[in-house]
Design brief:
501 residues, alpha+beta, six-stranded mixed beta sheet, six-stranded antiparallel beta sheet, 13 helices, 33% helix, globular
């Protein structure tokens, strides 16, 4: 919970999840009512989770590594019970009391780990779960900053980590091959067959992507399933998305033939990410004064993903911060729009880097936004003095060029963050547009934003005149996120994730 890593954040816990389905399932179990006999002591967290049977599942986590054991039959590491227990513990709200001693069943496993760590062969076993339930004795570094600090335990075993990475890569490759067969069957039978088939076949394919631990492929399959019911022109959209899915499959199956940066992008798109701790240790830090341009909370099942966009004052680079919060738990303090943060950012490997994580923070800037009312509880305080001016923006042509350049390096890119200057919001029968009077051109607003009432708010702020708007420019159009009046005004609230691309 704190910067010293004494307690993990929800994001660090969710980074351990093998797939999106496990993240959702673990989030549902991050409630005190699901657990009994829960406790934490030193580097151990344990608890009993009620299941469908008469006996609760025994779940224990060794934060050194970490390592997990659960008596459930799942073959995923960590299982949803371990994730739920860690999310409950990370919330720091008394759901997992501290200070007690582990029960006998937990201590037996923890003691075995300590003995193996002290012996000459401390490597993790190269096997699956034992007969008694799911267990992973290996070390995994995906928990990010501060995970497991402050305790003495087994050092990470590079060979065990490599074996696990190889096994997961093999599962993802099998999933990509299975999806290729599904796409080939669809094209052979004709796109019209997708409308008649319904969701059943796609759901089965998505479930296989979950088994393959490929959350990126699972997401694409579910998007494909929604296209046949998305209105006129769906066959063309389905063909486009099938082509992108095919490209991703082939890219992962032939990673060794790709340039290093494109291979990193491909790994990320299928769902393989770099642990935060590893990223900060090996990546290049970029120091700048970062302006917070906007943020968006997106509900994904029972988890909330927070996206925060920044732009460097000196480098002019865009950056995206991504964090997660468990159900019913407060999100991490948000960076308010308009804040200028003097900090180091480290970008995740990619052909066109965008997602980043914050490293060292330097002396706080005195500048900040003038709040539109009081900031929510837990949000960093921002001095009212020294208001920021409206950020510098670009015209429609430059915005499209920026998206096109990024798309050339990442063909699966949905949109690229840009700040549009001096555009006028205009409603019409065919949807909204942002008109650029300087060039006589206009950028359509993404049709998926058509039902948002904040577009009328944007029009009211503009008063028929030009305004500055930050958002994402993509192949469907522009998605507004923030405008200035002259202080920042958020144009979006928490939304439900879903729909078609």
């Amino acid at each position: 919970m704190n910067p010293q890593g004494e307690r993990w954040t929800a994001e660090q816990v969710l980074a351990l999840a093998p797939d999106a389905a496990s993240r959702k399932a673990g989030g549902k179990l991050a409630a005190a009512g699901s657990w009994s006999g829960a406790g934490a002591h030193g580097q151990a967290v344990w608890g009993l989770c009620a299941g469908s049977g008469s006996k609760p599942y025994q779940t224990v986590v060794d934060l050194n590594g970490p390592g997990y054991r659960c008596s459930c039959p799942s073959r995923k590491f960590p299982c949803k019970h371990a994730l739920g227990l860690l999310l409950l513990w990370a919330s720091g709200e008394g759901g997992v009391p501290g200070g007690g001693e582990p029960p006998e069943w937990a201590e037996q496993w923890l003691g075995g780990r300590r003995e193996r760590a002290a012996g000459p062969a401390a490597a993790a076993p190269d096997g699956g779960p034992g007969r008694g339930g799911a267990e992973e004795d290996g070390t995994r570094s995906g928990a990010g900053d501060g995970a497991g600090r402050g305790g003495s335990g087994a050092a990470a075993d590079p060979q065990a980590a490599r074996r696990r990475a190889e096994r997961r890569a093999q599962r993802i490759a099998a999933g990509a091959t299975e999806l290729e067969r599904r796409l080939a069957d669809l094209l052979r039978d004709g796109l019209a067959s997708a409308d008649r088939a319904g969701y059943g076949a796609w759901d089965e394919t998505a479930a296989r992507m979950v088994d393959a631990q490929a959350p990126g492929l699972e997401t694409r399959v579910r998007e494909l399933a929604a296209i046949p019911s998305s209105g006129p022109g769906w066959p063309a959209r389905l063909l486009e998305e099938c082509a992108l899915a095919h490209l991703l499959n082939q890219g992962f199956l032939h990673l060794d033939r790709l340039p290093e940066k494109l291979a990193a992008t491909t790994r990320t798109r299928v769902g393989l990410t770099t642990p935060v701790a590893e990223l900060l240790a090996t990546g290049e830090a970029v120091r700048d004064r970062w302006l917070v341009l906007g943020r968006q909370d997106t509900a994904d099942g029972r988890l909330t993903a927070r996206r925060t966009w920044l732009r460097g004052e000196r480098t002019h680079r865009m950056a995206l911060l991504l964090s997660f919060s468990a159900p019913g738990r407060p999100s991490e303090p948000a960076l308010p729009t308009g804040l200028v943060l003097d900090a180091d950012l480290t970008y995740y490997p990619a052909a066109r880097p965008l997602r980043a994580t914050i490293g060292a923070r330097h002396e706080e800037s005195p500048e900040g936004p003038s709040a539109m009312g009081a900031e929510p509880a837990g949000m960093p305080s921002v001095p009212e003095a020294g208001m920021l001016s409206v950020p510098e923006g670009c015209d429609v042509g430059t915005a499209l060029a920026a998206y096109g350049s990024a798309l050339g390096e990442d063909p699966w890119l949905e949109g690229w963050p840009v700040v549009l200057a001096e555009v006028v919001p205009v409603p019409g029968d065919d949807g909204w547009q942002l008109a650029d009077e300087r060039s006589g051109s206009a950028l359509p607003v993404d049709p998926r934003c058509a039902g948002r009432t904040d577009l009328w708010q944007l029009m009211a702020i503009s008063g028929g005149g030009p305004v500055t708007v930050f958002g994402e420019c993509g192949h469907r159009g522009f998605s507004p996120i923030t405008t200035w009046d002259p202080t920042p005004v958020s144009l979006i609230t928490t939304t439900a994730q879903g729909g078609t691309r």
